[in-house]
Amino acid sequence: QVPLVESGGGLVQAGGSLRLSCAASGRTFSRSQMAWFRQAPGKEREFVAAITWSGGTTYYADSVKGRVTISRDNAKNTVYLQMNSLKPEDTAVYYCAGRSTNYGARITTNHREYDTWGQGTQVTVSS
Fold first, then answer.
1. pLDDT at 105
2. Which residues does residue 58 pair with via DSSP β-bridges, in sequence order?
3. Could you give the CA distance from residue 9 to residue 125 in angstroms, rounded to a whole number?
4. List of long-range contacts for 102-107, beta carbons under 8 Å, 24+ apart
5. 32-39 vs 116-117, strand pairing mode
6. Is 66 left (phi over 0), alpha (psi -120 to 50) or beta?
7. What residues in the chain have per-residue pLDDT under 70?
8. Strands 116-117 and 121-126: what pairing?
9. Helices (H) and strands (E) in the chain — how many of each?
């Protein structure tokens, strides 16, 4: 089975909104720290947002803080990324990522510490 499957990407105009979803298997999702990364052609993979397994702690990149909200529904094994006030520079392939954690594990923005990834969903913001 595919461990993580992103959906919800698309083409929007600047100022618009999108909600991305990431569906995970129970094994992948349980006690996991989840995150969203993005990557545009020719650019480095960039951290966007992360959330602890309980949903009690979140962290955002400065570039999206105030415009983006990450959340999760453990009953549905799904993590979301609500994006508002989208800008052309938000254009990228958005990837969902996860990692298993112990109690008290800290949020990490380092993509190397996430071991489970989806195939990505394209977000294009027109000017």
1. 83
2. 51
3. 10
4. 102/31, 105/33, 105/52, 107/33, 107/50, 107/51, 107/52, 107/57, 107/58, 107/59
5. unpaired
6. left
7. 1-2, 28
8. unpaired
9. 1, 11
